[in-house]
Amino acid sequence: LVKVAFKMARGRIVELVLLIVIDLWTVNSFQLHNPLTRLGLDASKFRPNAARKQASSSIVMKHPAKVAVIGSGAVGLYYGGRLLEAGHDVTFLARRDLERLKKNGLRIKSVDGDIKFDRVKAVGDVSQIGEVDWILLSVKSYALEACKDLVKGCMGPNTRVLAVINGFGIESCLGSDFPHEKIFGGMAFTCINRESDGEVNHLKYGAITFGHYKDDKEELAKVVELFEGSKVQITTSECLLFSRWEKLCWNIPFNGIAVAMGGITTDIIVQDPDLRLLARNVMEDVVKVGNEDLKASNISPEYRLNEETIAAMFKRTDNMGPYRPSTMIDLVEGKQMEVEYMFGNPLERAKALQMSCGYMETVISMIKGIQRIRNL
Q1: CA-to-CA distance for 164 and 168, rounded, in angstroms?
Q2: Distance CA 107, CA 374 (A)
Q3: What is the pLDDT of residue 12?
Q4: For the chain, which ranges sit under pLDDT 70?
Q5: Residue 10: is it exposed, middle or buried by C-beta count within 10 angstroms (0-12/13-18/19+)?
Q6: Which ranges constitute the DSSP H helices of the chain?
Q7: What is the pLDDT of residue 62?
Q8: Which of 127, 135, 128, 121 is nearest to 65 (CA)?
Q9: Are strands 121-123 and 89-93 parallel, antiparallel or unpaired?
Q10: Rg for the chain (alpha carbons), in Å?
């Protein structure tokens, strides 16, 4: 009947209708035998719902990796969810959200496309995971030392550890217990929060920069391969120390001032002229200390922070809207704050280098004072 219809039909409209009907009967072949493409039209605008869903969630992996997410907060759930979406075998180690993940699955509302998995692997004990290819470590930095036993529970001879954790000295802490060649750092430039109902809300950005503890290019290619095919925008850094200081250029002023001011959002900081100037002065201190540390560590002069770094940080923040930085959220919710690695360690490094950084030191002193007074 179809052949007869084609012989009878001479107009492109009739041909188009018939071809669409045929392909709607076999949705799985839509991408390979797309009638709209054959007629020179943009198929993405006319793709049926079933095919659209399949195209966005069924990514065939050549070599799916076994991944353990240790630290199933907003960051861990988001990037773990993207790896799961890309076809990897992902298990989430969870505590407070364990039953919720088991019952409701994983829901992520994202500017890069929502994710919903009705069922995910979620466990409460690392012994239920076993040896994996990758550990996505996304705990709060104050829990870094305590979580080492959890990491050991998933480690094998070929396991790699990717620490997506804010702060300074993360990799050296892990390096005291694990092989240096297996340690990676991830700096996520993103706006992600977790809602009260457990849904992850990815508001803006989402790019992540990866570096290797020993700046090994061949090893760095492994983490690129892991995220290949995912919706995560990735960049690599051939100098992890540089990228750590680059991220601190945002964290110290914006997380810091948000806390020092009692819990304000980033839009208030960038819109108020005095607070904006303060943020810039703090950032200039971070740039100064970071560059001195890079120099003292014999890092090539091509890796230095500069005015372009500062401009980029403010441009991102100007476009964020009323974003609540992670440390500010901890403050207003009365939770333990990340102080040592995000603020204390960079200041200690400045003192060791005999660097004067008055603005940076003042803001950090205020944060430490708030932490002691409120027992956070």
Answers
A1: 12
A2: 33
A3: 43
A4: 1-62, 196-197
A5: exposed
A6: 2-8, 12-25, 35-38, 49-57, 74-85, 98-104, 148-152, 170-175, 217-227, 240-250, 256-260, 266-271, 273-296, 307-318, 326-332, 345-352, 358-374
A7: 61
A8: 135
A9: parallel
A10: 24
**Which two three-digit tokens encode residue 114?**
């929502």
pLDDT score recorded for residue 194 = 83
DSSP assigned state of 73: S
Q: Rounded CA gap, 251 and 289, in Å?
A: 14
Q: Is 317 helix (H, G, I), strand (E, B) or coil?
A: helix
Query: Residues 167, 338: contact at Cβ < 8 Å?
Result: yes
Nearest 5 degrees, angle CA 339-CA 343-CA 345?
A: 100
* Nearest Cα residue to 219 out of 162, 170, 174: 162
Of 5, 25, 26, 1, nearest in space to 15 by CA: 5
- Residue reference for tokens 């799961």: 84
State the number of CA atoms in the 13 A half-sphere of 367 facing the CB.
30
* CB-based contact 22:2 (threshold 8 Å): yes
Considering Cα of 38, then 44, then 49, then 55, what sign does the dihedral take? positive
